[in-house]
Amino acid sequence: MSAAPAANQADGKAPAKGSKKLIIIIVGVVVVLLLAGVGAFLLMQKNMSQQDDEGEDGAAQASQVAESSAKPKVDPGAPPIFVPLEPFIVNLADRETERFAQIGINLQVDDAKVGDQMKLYMPAIRNAILLILSRKSAEDLLTAEGKVQLASEIQRGAARAMGYEIEEPEPEPVVEPSAEGEGEEPAPAPKKRKKKKVESYNPILQVHYANFIIQ
Questions:
Q1: Residue 178: strand, helix, or coil
Q2: What is the pTM (predicted TM-score) of this model?
Q3: pLDDT tens, 157-171?
């Protein structure tokens, strides 16, 4: 009689231990899955954050490149860089008499690499400057304003000969004399909104004359 109850008790305890182990295994699997899900979520958040940072950095770099392409890079502490050109001797455009000019020019550039690049484009640069000089008359070049105007044209023409796109400066507005009486003040002209213009990049900063002779 005592063997049967002992067997029954043994049979009743075995399922209880097995169910506890099963519950522990299930809980462990659930915890592992939760940890894996949290880890995957954190990894996705990190990747998205890195992509956003890279996008912002790329936009900032693109903006810096755009600004640098419009403005010359000049180091205030660096010595100036000059590219001397052989003197130009050219017949001027005077019709009444034959006159010629002998002009020496030094081009100041913003980078030493540009100076080296000019050596490759020197035939095109000299041709562009000669064409500019040949359109001038002695009267155009004798005044200080004429020399300044010539330097501005040479600066743009030499850069264009190297492949740079340089826009022409906007002409100054001409103020026409008023038809009203001398004692009356002219009516103010209506103000026009100026469009913001992006300056084109020119590696040639200035044009310096080494000599300027007109005969």
A1: coil
A2: 0.57
A3: 999 999 999 888 876
Which residues touch 171 (CB under 8 Å, ≥6 apart)?
Answer: none
DSSP collapsed to 3 states, 99-129: CEEEEEEEEEECCHHHHHHHHHHHHHHHHHH
Nearest in space to 203 (alpha carbons), one of 62, 63, 70, 67 = 70
Tell me the C-alpha distance between 39 and 29, whole Å.
Answer: 15
State the DSSP code for 198: P
Distance of CA 104 to the CA centre of its chain: 32
* 13-28 per-position pLDDT tens digit: 555 556 676 777 777 7
Residues 6+ apart with CB under 8 A from 36: none
Helix or strand run (H / E) with residue 19: helix 3-70
